[in-house]
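assembly run, all chains below
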Amino acid sequence: MCLGVPGQIKEIIVGSGLRMAKVDFGGVIREVCIETLPEARVGDYTIVHAGFALNLLSEEEAKETLDLLDQLAQYEDPVTDDFSESTPA
Amino acid sequence: MQFIDEFRDNRLAQGLLAEIRRTVTRPWVLMEICGGQTHAIMQYGLDQLLPPEIELVHGPGCPVCVTSLELIDKALAIASQPEVIFTSFGDMLRVPGSQGDLFSVRARGGQVKVVYSPLDAVRIAQQNPDKQIVFFAIGFETTAPPNVASVLQAQALGLKNYSILVSHVRVPPAMHAILGSPHNRVPGSRACMRGDGILGISTHCRSISCAHDGYRV
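ok done. output:
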């Protein structure tokens, strides 16, 4: 149950009761409640937990984090290099 | 961007690990709060990839573990009723009560269904007007809003056959107790994005600021 999965909002469903949307999880489409995200629009990415969208994801922020990780990956690390370059005897 | 594959890049992970190895100068005891984090750490062997100076301890954030025996027994008793369809997240089915678990209730003919979301339980209630549908509403701040929303949805649909067995607990008091203990050896904890997203980040920061003097993070 403790799983937050990112997905993209494909369609907002207008009906009775809670505000729902069809969300694409890497090819799998599920109906998700977006009641807590009145600002959600088609095309937005969101984290979904137990069938409820919790918040919107920012592609810019994700790229910023990945860029920082990429910079770290440029550093040389003797320990890692030893492991990755070793050849089985 | 799918927000999944991009964060499963081995090269980026190795870079981050290298930076951690380079930076660490003293022993650290870090606690993850969320059971999902514990699961990810174990699944991907992250504890073995970190340098020996970093010790990971597992925090109080597993709702399955903190649900009381009394509540499990109530769930077993309700699920055994012939007019009931008992619905639950899958990970609760193996948790033992005083006499068996929800799987054993199902084996004896009880109707126990696994759902991904409490809204799935509401749908089952719509489809089975002659049954009483009970959802096992366990968890922390992250699952409380969805569970309550399912009740509102059932009300909006005019359903009379949907109810929830509530067993909610809060994370911050547990974190305050741990971090405020004179025997605490955890100087820092990993934030849980979903929890913070619902609680607001300030709540988590408050609990962290209670960390033992000298180890303030």
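The first helix of chain A runs from residue 59 to 74.

Helices of chain A lie at 59-74, 78-85.

not gonna interpret more than that til we talk
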